[in-house]
What we know:
- This protein is an alpha/beta fold.
- The protein has a domain at 23-185: 5'-nuclease (Rossmann fold, 3-Layer(aba) Sandwich).
- The protein contains twelve helices and twelve strands.
- The protein has helices at residues 2-13, 33-44, 50-58, 78-88, 110-120, 137-145, 161-166, 177-180, 184-192, 236-256, 266-297, 303-313; strands at residues 26-32, 47-48, 62-72, 91-96, 98-99, 105-106, 126-130, 149-154, 169-172, 181-182, 196-198, 204-206.
- Strand 3 (62-72), helix 4 (78-88) and strand 4 (91-96) form a beta-alpha-beta unit.
- Helix 2 packs across helix 10 (236-256).
- The N and C termini lie far apart (169 Å).
- The relative contact order is 0.11.
Amino acid sequence: xxxxxxxxxxxxxxxxxxxxxxxxxxxxxxxxxxxxxxxxxxxxxxxxxxxxxxxxxxxxxxxxxxxxxxxxxxxxxxxxxxxxxxxxxxxxxxxxxxxxxxxxxxxxxxxxxxxxxxxxxxxxxxxxxxxxxxxxxxxxxxxxxxxxxxxxxxxxxxxxxxxxxxxxxxxxxxxxxxxxxxxxxxxxxxxxxxxxxxxxxxxxxxxxxxxxxxxxxxxxxxxxxxxxxxxxxxxxxxxxxxxxxxxxxxxxxxxxxxxxxxxxxxxxxxxxxxxxxxxxxxxxxxxxxxxxxxxxxxxxxxxxxxxxxxxxxx
Length: 314
């Protein structure tokens, strides 16, 4: 029994490499980032760990290329997110949103991903699609007809049944949320409090409390841990539209706020006061010169001549 039990454990540990998966296979990974990002946020309110997705998709096989397809939505942190994907090992491809005459906006990589898969098929043994979009089912069918193995990784709740049926292997990311999702709240709490420890694999593990607060309380005061309510599914397109509307509203609010007048520098005020003083002094000097001219034009007779004229009259 012990021997059989050990064989079962060994097969469970190495089941990823058994059967149709082996190390000599040449693999390419195609990630629909928008589909995966908004699926993770709508289902679990968490971001996808694209590093672990790539690592587990490969399963120690030979990676030829890994593509990450993104949409430019003019949101904060886009450049940093793209840089992180490149550091992981993805080739990031970006595309802007298409605006229609009705005002609706759309952004997708359906045709672009399909064209890249068709180009890469002659060099591959396995095509791995990281998306739940059912439009890719025909693409996987074509890849299989050309002799490639088709694998899909996505969240089951947001994945098309046609895509799952067409795939040779399907990995449900929601079955292992610890590996495939990132909890931002645990990271922010760890920066303020020393309640989390950074493990070697990059995950965060909370400290175990030695004394449980419930044990020291009476029975009527003990509280039970409540399960969090399940998040409702929201379509990725709806989340993207809401984000764009909020961004536009923020830009409009910035434009509406009146700009405060800039304070004038002291140097300019001092220069203006000096100019005014100079104008006053020049005006006074002009008046004084005018008075001098007027007084100089009047001829005053000397006193001797006045006396002579008086004697002559007598």
